[in-house]
Amino acid sequence: MNIYVSNLSYSTTSEGLQGLFAGYGEVTSANIITDRETGRSRGFGFVEMPSDDDANKAIKELNETDFEGNTIKVNVARPKTERSSGGGYNSSNRGGGYSNNRRY
Fold first, then answer.
1. How far apart are the first and last CA of the chain?
2. How far, in Å, CA of 38 to CA of 79, rounded?
3. What is the DSSP annotation of 64-102?
4. pLDDT at 79
5. Are 7 and 44 in contact (CB under 8 A)?
6. How far out from the chain centre does Cα 70 lie?
7. Hey, what domains does the chain have and what are their CATH numbers?
8. Which of 3, 35, 44, 97 has a CA that sits 20 to 30 A from residue 19's CA?
9. Which helix (H) or strand (E) holds 30?
């Protein structure tokens, strides 16, 4: 089962996250998501556990608990959804003399 963990401290490491969940069963992977440009943590990550029972227990017991100074949120990860490719500037009148059809 894939688990989404949010509101992580920016100093949390993948190893620290794995250690937290290892207390509930086998952890296949633990990854902190980082910003592509800066390499800094974005404050959330994913944990994969092969046993749904262990994963559900971890979710239930770790959600809304303190980890490294932050109250974390732990949920079942949902599949990534497609983002619309429409640009915000093209669809609204921003004023200032710019045309709605102008691309930036």
1. 41
2. 25
3. T-EETTEE-EEEEPPPPPPPP---TTTSS---TT--TT-
4. 83
5. yes
6. 14
7. 2-76 (3.30.70.330)
8. 35
9. strand 29-34
